[in-house]
Amino acid sequence: MGLREIQATIAKIDPLPGAKEFLDELRSLTQVVILSDTFTQFAMPLMKKLGMPTLLCNTLEVAPDGEITDFKMRVDHSKRSTVRAFQSIGYDTIAAGDSYNDLEMILESKAGYLFRSTEKIKADYPQLPAFEEYDDLLNAIKGELS
After folding, report:
1. Which of 11, 62, 76, 128 has the lowest tally of Cβ within 10 angstroms?
2. pTM
3. In this predicted model, what pLDDT tens digit does every residue of 72-108 receive, in sequence order?
4. Which residues, listed in sequence order, are joined to residue 54 by a DSSP beta bridge?
5. Cα 11 to Cα 100: distance, rounded to the nearest angstrom
């Protein structure tokens, strides 16, 4: 299976209900960057459905015939490193995520939230506010922005 086939499959996936509206509202209030451990080429079909938010992630190396030949990881601990980089140039950061690979980013940020996370992660990190609905997360972020 080559990149074209993978992208065609990913293009059939729709964002979670309410995700685009959440991002649109959030972008009307502040700058938004999505940090992901995925690869740009995989994420683009979904990002188009979300209105092309700014996405920072890894990259695949692809041969002219579409064969994936390698990948390029940006940096170790990419989410934490990116948050620190934004902070080093004067930005406050607010982060939300659902899994263990998001925790460094969430804990490093000025404010951090779990969103639609597992019960295990919520139990392991009870100090982090946890939300299940976009409106609740948006209200928490608005509180930090005011």
Report:
1. 76
2. 0.89
3. 998 889 999 999 999 999 999 999 999 999 999 999 9
4. 33
5. 26
